[in-house]
Amino acid sequence: MLKLLYDTAPVAVYYDKANDWLFADWRGTLTLKQVQAGCLTLARCFLKRSYARVLNSNCDVVSISPEAAPWLAGEFLPHLGLAGIKYLAWVCAPNLLLQHFANEAVRPLSATVVVFDDLAGAYAWLQRAHLVSGAVPHEAARQAEIGWRVAALAEELAHYEQVARLVATPARAEAAGKGMLR
Q1: Does residue 66 sit in helix, strand or coil?
Q2: Which residues contact 28 (CB under 8 A, 6 or more apart)?
Q3: Residue 146 is part of which domain span?
Q4: How many structural domains compose the chain?
Q5: Which H or E run includes 104?
Q6: For a FRET experiment, which of 50, 52, 63, 178 has its CA 20 to 30 Å from that of 80?
Q7: pTM of this prediction?
Q8: For residue 182, is it within any domain?
């Protein structure tokens, strides 16, 4: 049974209660800004609890900005271990370029990551992923650091949006002065 946690333009995030994992279902044409916003949505899920297993589906992704893979690899994905993720099943869209981006993005991860080209294979593998039971050491410190990193990411995205508005405002004012806007 899937419980919807978040539903945003780039990603819907569910909790799969039967399998005790997080399911991220990405869709559409993804810009770097949309990927960053979607990752912020995912990060917020880990503020409430940890998920050792994640099923990440890009089956419905049409295209992705070339800047997204380096950002994911350098800025977001390395922190997944902090979030408690041990196993990540990443399902690629049936597109060689998107598969290349996924492989580049997951390369630096410390979690066990397997990239699939079909959802059924990823699902079956993640169900078999062996989890060691027991409490996560230093849970409070881990949660505090996750909270700090989510806040920093949200602040960074807000800054980018503010800069984009400032850059757009003079251009719009100039266009209005020339009678180009109505």
Answers
A1: coil
A2: 9, 10, 34, 60, 61, 62
A3: 2-177
A4: 1
A5: helix 96-106
A6: 63
A7: 0.69
A8: no
